[in-house]
Amino acid sequence: MDFLSYLINGLGLGSVYAIIALGYTMVYGIAKMLNFAHGDVIMVGAYVAFFAISNLGLPLLPAVLLSIAVCTVLGVVIERLAYKPLRAASSLSVLITAIGVSYFLQNAAQLLWSSSTKVFPSVISNGGISWNGLTVSWLTLITISVCVLVMICLVLFINRTKTGRAMRACSEDKGASTLMGINVNLMISITFAIGSGLAAIASVLLCAAYPSVFPTLGAMPGIKAFTAAVFGGIGSIPGAFLGGLLLGVIEIFAKAYISTQLSDAIVFAVLILVLLIKPTGLLGKRIREKV
Amino acid sequence: MTQNRKPVLEVRELGIDFGGLSAVNDFNMEVYEGEIAGLIGPNGAGKTTVFNMLTKVYQPTRGTILFDGEDTAKKTVVEMNHAGIARTFQNIRLFSGLSVLDNVRTGFHGRVVYSPVAAVLRLPSYRAKEREIEEKSRELLSIFGLEEEADNLASNLPYGAQRRLEIARALATGPKLLLLDEPAAGMNPQETEELMQMIRLVRDHFHTSILLIEHDMKLVMGICERITVLNYGMMLAQGTPEEIQSNPEVIKAYLGE
Amino acid sequence: MKTKKKLPALMSAKYRGRTASYGCVLAGWLILEVMMHTGNLSSLFTSLLVPVCCYIVAAIGLNLNVGVSGELNLGQACFMSVGAFTAVCLSGSLARTIPAPLPRLILSILAGALIAAIFGILIGIPVLKLEGDYLAIVTLAFGQIVKSLITNMYLGVDENGFHFSFVDNQVNMAPGGKMLLNGPMGATGTERISTFTAGVILILLALIVVYHLMYSRSGRAIMAARDNRIAAESVGIGIFKTKMLAFAVSSCLAGAAGALYGLNYSTLVPAKFDFNTSILLLVYVVLGGLGNMTGTIVATVVLVLLPELLRSMQDYRMLIYAVVLILIMLLTNNETLKTWVQKLKKRYTAKGGTAHDTES
Q1: Pick from A218, B57, B176, C320: most CB atoms within 10 A?
Q2: Cβ of C234 and B86 within 8 Å?
Q3: Which domains are present in chain B?
Q4: Are residues C235 and B98, on separate chains, in Cβ contact within 8 Å?
């Protein structure tokens, strides 16, 4: 029974990683950049939700919607101000800029809201479903369902809508997309908007599980989710989903069966192993250079 | 005439599949010592794929490549070069961040060898070997009329000069067989004329055999002693320029029905 | 053309970059020494001298890896960590055998550099099989793993020899024994034997190693493999071996830098060398210019000092730091500004000034 409960907890944690990883992977797919500031958007989302619930007294759902709205706008603003002028620049310049944005958000949060940890109010009741001695908390159930829902919506959006198809076209070939009359800049903005909105959802789920809010909150989940995206094959949406879930399960199993202190090391070791066997991640495409 | 010479390259029933589709199949040819041979065919016939197999950029699916009488099945790209095959590329591949001189110097990587430790400590072996590399590189540059450009960045050279630099770099590796992939592409008739002279000079001066892919028929018919025609990944014909020019199959492949 | 030949060899285009680097370091050293001895350097700046030297050495190494070899490395701090804790442990356990600080410092730095280089080679074997962003992620992953491993190491020394324990602290030592590594607490009670002069010498050595390598057969191979992998292979350059050389030398320099750093503080925690430190080093390299060692030195000095100079702004300093970082990237990549600078350069050279061509 322990095994099953660890597995479900792992899927719960993995769902949060998966939602964050989707943001990384979509941005990478279309803008070919590693958006290191993504984790800090999660942090902003967490603060917004915290203030909406604690100070404004909003119920959970409106608080989440407010958080999504703020993060979406933030994501688009970051892209327009910091990344758009660097479309033609080297990927390293973009990377450093993303790091700058990450520092900026962390330090702005520290100035605005102080570096002391705030306790996120408990928003989801403690109980759960018990069955045959196995208890699954409401939070885990909700987290997994939200993740599945997000995934379904995203896949439908990407495959069934005109905008979704245009986004895919842009990630394949920007020049050809422009010739086909697609507004590439708009598509990139939409991608950032979706990714940042997802980060807000992830932030609330994360804070419901680990109820402390502080300026560097996004750093570690950010790196983990980023690892998950690479694990699944960066640029691939199902890959991010799969990578996130696997990463969560591996982390919980490592904590339970091996060592809490070494769980991070184990997670990263598994990533390295996977990349050695499949150099472009689980579902990543191998691009052959034309000679 | 060629029958008396030793073949430097023998290709037997060579083939490669990409994703289940056969790109080249049952390809046979040989290049003899000191020969200038041509490989022609319509676009997409698989000419560059043959070059990529000969240099092991692509691993052939079937067949054997004998180089200097030796089977090369297990060799890598680097080992093929050390064995004596050098090449140029259809889409020029120079080291754009290096100077013209340094591009040629890299060609001596496998021939004039000293250790990184000798370099860091500036040992006498470093100085002697570097002097040798510099002298030989400048000699190559002067043969190709690039000595004035030695210190410029390779990426700043005009197109024709870049093609010549690629040949110089390939020759620096001391090849027995030089593969030229469309050396005259983008050149005007006068440059092409000079290139033909240069290819003959390379053969005589460096004692290397040359196999070239080219669309410019004047160049191919002008300098190649034997020509192989490739169509849809299959060998269509082989022979002297005269034989090829009068071969009805070849004319059909080029002009259509 | 003719005037160029009359220039002394050190000022010729080929050597100008190197001369600038060495000159920069020596001038900085002289000025700072004079300031220290005349009492014009605040204690805050004096305390920054050794760390700045360490960051410069680690960044020069990283520039060889990222700028010259062209592989993004997000884990340079872990090699500093390996070097630092190797050196601290060695120095701690040799304190009685070699009481003189200087030979102990030299020995510890050498050991730190060597162990870090071995780590670099071991990590390089899997890392260098990958390409591009995937390679970067794996260096990040190794950085996290090394940090996590060192955080869980316990090492003590007493009259019976060394005692090692992993994850759970089970080191039981005879009285008078000394803990060298104490898990997340790291190393404590280290004798501070690093000096600024040692730092300057280390920078000069790092520059000599990197420049001598760059202008040799191996250096050309490293750059060729960066510029065009397939063409490099086609002229007989083994990519793996070549990239490994750059990676190992880079790790080795980071290890030496870490050793000097570790021996400059009485306490050192493993968390010091985390992902953020790796990123900071990368920022120094990119801002200084890829492959430009003088640039790396200047960028490191400026960026280490910037938050200190902004101390009067108190809370806003890190925010300003972040904005400066973003603005530099936006401005250096601005097309209109680029063409404008190029025009200015052309006019300057046309008037008979010296050409500002970069070293090739």
Answers
A1: A218
A2: yes
A3: 1-84+175-257 (3.40.50.300), 99-173 (no CATH)
A4: no
